[in-house]
Design goal:
178 residues, alpha/beta, 7 helices
Amino acid sequence: MTIDGGSKGYAIWLTGLPASGKSTIVAALRPQLEGLGYVVEVLESDAVRRILTPAPTYSHEERELFYRALAFMGARLVAHGVTVIFDATANRRAYRDFARTLIPKFIEVAVECPLELAMQRDYKGTYRRGQQGESTTVPGLQDPYEAPLNPEVTIDTTKLSAKEAVGMIMQSLKESFR
């Protein structure tokens, strides 16, 4: 069963501050989509970055190139019927907007979480490295995070569980791609 009766893939970009809850939602979303018969690929920024930029500087230029490449990969997968979930902060709107121009069936999911809570949840140590001066480009800390202006779905992870978030995303897919 597919959301719109067709077999084409979709792109779902979860964006939010580092440690806002994106990966937790993705972990619940993927099996839901696979259970409906979709072939799903998760493009998680840290995993892809290890291949594209093994010694990342996180400079503006490097991020621009990285997110263009990520969007292109996603667009090619979607063109071949794969449903792509982007698990990537993409701190500039332009990065996500570029992906939207490449992918006709695209929804943006704003994963909202206060910076203080994201810092508490940060098991990767991203914010700690930023506070200790080991990194100078942490989104929300030293580098701006540009929240989506008109996301298809907004999830407040202080109020909603991952299961509830998945329900909202699935409903948006059904409404967007009838």
